[in-house]
TrEMBL record:
Compositionally biased tracts (Polar residues): 166-182
Cellular component, GO, one term: cytoplasm
Domain named EF-hand: residues: 87-122
Pfam families: EH (PF12763)
PROSITE patterns hit by this protein: EF_HAND_1 (PS00018), EF_HAND_2 (PS50222), EH (PS50031)
GO biological process: endocytosis; endosomal transport
Gene Ontology MF term list: calcium ion binding
InterPro entries associated with the record: EF-hand-dom_pair, EF_Hand_1_Ca_BS, EF_hand_dom, EH_dom
Residue span, EH domain: 55-143
Alphabetic keyword roster: Calcium, Metal-binding
Region (Disordered): 134-182
Protein name, as recorded: EP15R factor
Gene name as annotated: Eps15l1
Amino acid sequence: FYVALRLVACAQNGHDVNLSSLNLTVPPPKFHDTSSPLLITPPSTETHWAVRVEEKAKFDGIFESLLPVNGLLSGDKVKPVLMNSKLPLDILGRVWDLSDIDKDGHLDKDEFAVAMHLVYRALEKEPVPSLLPPSLIPPSKRKKTPVFPGAVPVLPASPPPKDSLRSTPSHGSVNSLNSTGS
């Protein structure tokens, strides 16, 4: 399978399809099967961001009015803006935690836009998520995970259904298994 994929990559990059091409350095092959559940977001939708362009322009204006230092706002500068929303402190704390994507204690322009987006949604009675959804991660902050050559992306494993964790009644309980000494 590996050899077949290497040969496909060679063909896609204009190299001869033969065994001597296997040692060439080529990017991984590309497949465009839109029905695949393992498909990573195609480039055309990769830039989709839940923060609308009009919203972003308004948030950028607020960001600049707070006089960022080196393109960053400290928590002290952002706090009065967040507090002005009159949202509960636990909600505002979660907004900050979700917005400070790189966990540096400061918000850049995109992180600030995420914070303001979450605040405005919370004011419209939408719940603040416990984890930042991918659509809210700014395009500038995406793909920060290291990519290893030849790595194959996989879906995260889902936890097993709770019923599958119970012992099956047909052969007795776990205690009867232990009593046999096996």
